[in-house]
Input
Amino acid sequence: MAADFKEHGGVSAPVYTDPSRQTYAALGAKRGLAAMFHPLATLAGLRSLASGHKQTGTAGDPLQQGGELVVQPDGRVLFLHLAGFAGDHAQVADVLAVLPER
Output
């Protein structure tokens, strides 16, 4: 997912993930079946299919809801969005807008 974000967003800054999920836990990110099968997740999936996208695989823990976090080297948080359900993503343009340079 991070590689896709960099490729499609044209981001040259480092992008990190946390396979241990310690960051997710510290931020209070949701994990579980309730978020995965939330009614809004179904709508997000249908919108995605209608737009021509399809899921071809799953990366990482499918029960872990993600998010977007942008942190400056000095530790300042510039952007934080935690997914409330599967398919709840921040707009890429909103994330890119807070980056000092790309």
User: Anything to note?
Assistant: Residues 2-97 form one domain. Helices lie at 2-9, 22-27, 33-36, 39-50, 92-97. The radius of gyration is 14 Å.
